[in-house]
Amino acid sequence: MKENIIKQSYEIAKERYAELGVDADKAISALGKISLSLHCWQADDVAGFENQGGGLTGGIQVTGNYPGRARNIDELRTDIVKAKSLIPGVHRLNLHEIYGEFGDKAVDRDEVEPKHFQSWMEWGKDNNMKLDFNSTSFSHPKSGNLTLANPDKAIRDFWIEHTKRCRKISEAMGKFQGDPCIMNLWIHDGSKEVPVNRMKYRRILEQSLDEIFTTKYKNMKDCIEAKLFGIGLESYTVGSYDFYLGYGAKKGKIVTLDTGHFHLTESVADKLSSLLLFTPEVMLHVSRPIRWDSDHVVILNDDLQDLAREIIRCDALDRIHIGLDYFDATINRIGAYVIGSRSTQKALLTALLEPQKKLLQYEAKDRLFQRLALQEELKSMPWNAVWDMFCLQNDTPAADDYIADIEKYEKEVTSKRK
Question: In the structure, what pLDDT confidence band is assigned to residue 54 with cuts at 50, 70 and 90?
């Protein structure tokens, strides 16, 4: 889009918002300070580089076989840099443990060390991307249906040691980058049918977590993530939302809310104001479920906008971390990265442009018709002109101009991967 058209449109939009008491320049500035944590696994279909062999397990599934999947660490990094160039702002990178640089050596998950991620730390510094991290309990011979909640002590201890080492790696990352690394713990543990003794496995998981969190670190933050169910684990999930909410509130841990890990009629946005009262911070994994946790590419739908509005209305940008978590192999993977990231930013921008003061005045005076009417009119305000200006200021393609960039990259790079 031509620069002069963007500037002209923005000046008009700026005036429109000013009439409502909203400073568009301030909204752009605030959006520029919000870093998304981009998920590395979108580029390679959650394969990783540890050379364990076999397919994806643990109740999760990637659909599609679009050509051009990143096959090694260099291709993955190249794809991430390309996606990053089309997403305005400064962002982070979220790594799973299986994405370490292991070379030709087989490194089991209870042997992984910070040295296996040293090159990622240096790469992150060179590319202005701070790192976040995840332990990886799936796709391993010892995964089965139970890991940290496994009654078999040998299996359980293996995963406890793995998770301890992941926390140590996260500490090294945070120290290296001078900013806390957010370490997310998600396990798939569950059962296809309902167990007779539900509490047994949850008590084991609680004990495993207590042991894992014994060591205190200064440069990393722990998150614990719930799930509703997984494929083949439909009836019972050990680490349910209620379990992790209780554990997080009791032990002062960050609770991760994945927008795909709840019943489709639940509002994840509604949960934020409650969690913020009882837990120190909140981690968000933004995804889009279609009938189940299918991890579709994030789009600018009502659920996403509701979530973004709640973050801003709670004045919680300093306590909420926002990451992406989907993996779509049915379309161009770089395009999936960019669509989801930009959609999330657009939702945050529209929330930042909301005239909260005026809406709160209506609410305080019980002028509910006026409140609803203004909320409806905001949907047709020229926020897209503000978005285009944000892209322009960040030297990033505005509107749909990024499509051509991705097509060119596919022609020159990803289409040549066989």
Answer: low
Q: What pTM value is reported for the model? A: 0.95
Q: What's phi and psi for 20, nearest 5 deg?
A: -95, 5
Residue 162's region, left for phi above 0, alpha for psi from -120 to 50, else beta, is: alpha
Active site residues: 186, 225, 227, 258, 261, 285, 293, 295, 325
SS (H, E, C) the chain: CCHHHHHHHHHHHHHHHHHCCCCHHHHHHHHHCCCEEEEHHHCCCCCCCCCCCCCCCCCCCCECCCCCCCCCHHHHHHHHHHHHHCCCCCCEEEEEHHHCCCCCCCCCCCCCCHHHHHHHHHHHHHCCCCEEEECCCCCCCCCCCCCCCCCCHHHHHHHHHHHHHHHHHHHHHHHHHCCCEEEEECCCCEECCCCCCHHHHHHHHHHHHHHHCCCCCCCEEEEEECCCCECCECCEECCCHHHHHHHHHHHCCEEEEECCCCCCCCCHHHHHHHHHHHCCCEEEEECECCCCCCCECCCCCHHHHHHHHHHHHCCCCCCEEEEECCCECCCCHHHHHHHHHHHHHHHHHHHHCCCHHHHHHHHHCCCHHHHHHHHHHHCCCCHHHHHHHHHHHCCCCCCCCHHHHHHHHHHHCHHHCC
Q: Which tens digit of pLDDT belongs to each residue from 14-53?
A: 999 999 999 999 999 999 999 999 999 999 888 888 865 5
